[in-house]
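Researcher: Good morning. I'm working through a list of sequences from a screen, and I'd like to move beyond sequence-only analysis. For each chain I'm collecting a predicted structure so we can compare shapes side by side. This is the next one on the list. No need for commentary yet; just the structure.
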Amino acid sequence: MMRWTHPFTLQWKAIGLSPWRPVDAQGAPGKGMPRAVQAGFLLGLALFSGASGACGKETIRGLPFTRSYPLEEIGNVPRGPRLGFDAFGRLAVTHNGVYEVLNDTTWVDMSGQPADDGVIIVRVLQASEGRAYYGSRGSWGRVEFSAEGRLRAIPLAPADRPEWTLTASFSELLANDDGIFFAGWEGVVWWDPAKEQCRYFEVGGLSAIFRVGQRVFVSPYQRPLHELDYRQGILRPVANTDFAGSAVEFATPLDDTRTLLGIRDGRLVVFDGASATEWPWQAKHGLTGDISAVHHLIDGGTAVAIADRGLFLVSPEGELTSALTAPPYHRITGLGSREPGVLWVVTEDSIEKVLYGSPLTVFGQRLGLPVQWPKVVRWNGRVVVATRGRLYAAVAGPPGAASRFEPMPTPPTGAWAAAAFDSRMLVGNSAGVFVAESDGTFTPVPSVQDVQQLIMVGADLCFAIGKTETAALRWAGGQWSECAPRIGGVGHPAAVTHATAHAAWLELGANRVARLSLQEGRIKLRTFDKLAGNAMQWVNVGIVDDLVVLSGAIGKRLYFDERTESFCAAPQLERLLARSPHWIIRMEKDESGTLWAAHEEGVVTFTPKDGDYEMDVNSFDGLNDRYPVVHVLPHNDVWLSAGRSLHHVEQRRASERPGALQPQLVSVEDSRTNVELLHGHRARAEPLRLRFDQNSVALRFFSGTYAWRRAPIYEFRLNGADRWATLGSGSLLSLSGLHEGTYHLQVRIAGRGDRPAEPTTFDFEILPPWPRTSGAYVAYGLGLVFAIVGLVEWSSRRARRRNLALEQLVRDRTRQLEKTMEQLNEETRNAATLAERNRLAGEIHDSLQQGLSGAILQLDATLKLRSVTGLVRSRLEVVRNMVSYTRHEVQHAVWDLESPLLADTELGEALRKLTGLINPGTAKISIDVSGTPVPLPSATKHHLLRIAQETTTNAVRHASAQRIAIQVDYQADVVALTVVDDGVGFEPDDVLSKSGGHFGLRGLRDRARKLEGEIEIHSLPGQGTTIRVSVPLHPQPLIATDAQNRSF
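Model: Good morning. Structure tokens for this chain:
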């Protein structure tokens, strides 16, 4: 929390006067006021009038603006912190590990964590070379910043340092062109940056270290000053500087050849490196007591803090310019400054900014003046303020001290209006109008009742405005009297009134003003309304010579010429007012030609210079109240008032113009990780490059000064945008989710004059994410090339595969066509064969089959004969069965049918039926089936059956076999038929090599070949025969038909 405060000043002791007694509820003096008191008031008034003529208006001075920062709201800051400034000029507070920096109005904690060796920083010094150094207990060194933007100690103490440095508290730091001096009670360590080495000086009882120019001195207790010859490594005493056994407690350089020393016994002396002399201004201004702080100001003055007395500022010429003696300044422990007009004060419970160089001073309750729409006039050379129904007179204080207002005699029923010119003052209240007499009494003037406003026009005309009547009073013949018939009231005039040389103007509220003038002995009232159209906008009045300016809403302004009493154009004045960054509502012109133009939160001045006007928008900006009113009293005595505030302009200081401000970039932080990306004091020749994951940043700016009463407002624009955007109430600019690319950021301080403020520029670049980097695009290009090549290759392969498929399809279709042609040819052949078969069937049916049938009939008739014995009958039955089987086989062969033994059965069962038909009973035939039977093509079954029939018949008829074993073996991919007999055997090679061969064996080989199988024949004479046929389970389709492949 930050607040403006207006400190108390010296306790006022009236010169020969006692404070006036309180007035009663109506504002009248107490009934028992002694005559002696009234006489004292008149004497004091006379004395003051004479003094004011001698010393002028400079004797009236209010309190400087201050801003207080309580310690508990800064951070973990105990009492007695040390003040310093960082590389940007920001105020820094240091105390036992705490390091807080004031960035405009925000305290930034930059305290670091104690290092592994337990370093707790107690003092930080910013050296001129740009580096910062620290002092601590038993340690000293450089200060750097961590990635989080916090302090980090870099110790410079070597391992072989003297033992006394291990426990010394280096709480005082001093710098010159040759290095840094770390001082404590035990002694001094000099760090030589050129050689990067330390030199040690054990002193003992060291009270202070200071320098005169580049020479360094130390002050030990009960010993004279010693010059520290750090090059030679010796301490050289300075004669006649023992200060009566005391020691130096404070030191501040006055210039390059002199330093002001504060001795512990309360003396202030000037030391030039050889001798010490008394500081002459101490005795002149009575600055005695317990000196608690001494500080040389940037503008050449000196600030002296005295315990239980206050803070005193002395100019370079020895003038006591300010004395702040309120209780908060009785316990000052530190002072600091780095710019003119701004002094930092450390009190018991706060750090306070004192704007001692401000052209504005403040009056209020602390100076005895309760403020409520004050009316300021000058009467008999004395400033009088009418406020809250009473009159208060300004009483000048001692040199440097603020003036006070003390109540003065007031007419019965109070003072609600006042108007004055030179020695004539009128006061109005509910009882009427009164003349203030020089003896402190008030003479009533016959006039209107319930006076609300008194407006002095010129030296001898005053308008008295009551609730129901308005009168004109003229000064003539040494008295005031009405000079024209009264008119009705003008409404409810506000507290703001104005006067020209010809008329009085009143602000009557929303969209309404009035003008009073005296013409031909009569009061003329003109009321102007609807000046802002139908909007309910307050219309303000300003006076510039004979021109009345009526200002309403922004952009709406009218000009009234007092000489012609008509509205007119004022282009030159309009252009001048348009130069202000604020909308001007009221204006007054002083005797020097300066135009005081009030806006919502302050005042802009236009001062004639070189045929033009110089505008100042900063000196009187940031008042404590809004919509101020300018009061220009005689001798250019300017006051600014509002509803609850009253300020006085000190012309000597008002002539100083603040320089242009350019903000500084002090920090760039990653908003996501809070990692510091750049310290602004590091110069960069190229834009800062940030990774894409760092595209949300927080940039902190500093205005570069603390001389403002109101915190600066920043404006920014990115990449040259047409319009400037307001940063807000702080100095932290957050940019989130930035796209990749280069950015040009401009930041300036708003409202700094008629010329555009010089912006600070910062260039940075957000690198693209890897998928959008040039390398990625190259990879994308290569990938695309590879993809295209792959696509082409894939298409080519696909085309080749399609071509191969088409070729295969053509081949397949060709084979199908060939097969179809073969089938067609086969059908043709089959047709021919069928025709031939029909012919043969007819022939066989008429010849062979009839013969076989006849044979069967004959055998049946023979079997019926009783004379046929059992053996013969058995033989005949076999013959009959064979003939019958032959007849059926011939019938099936003719019609190309499979054997009737294979009908609706598998191969093993067919073999069993076959053996039953062909076995005459002389051999024992066994059938064995192994494996899992699978369905076989009919052709395979037919040929295997014929092979089994042929081999079995041969074994019975030719080999005289007694045992025949037939085995069918179903395997995974083949079916094997094996026939083994124990007959006489033979030589297969001899049989097959004979001319013509053996029809039965050749037939077996032909049938095996038709099945794409293999036949093995193993036989020797006298050892039986083994015939094995192996046939694939899935043979290739047979081209020949079953009719062609079968042989009988």
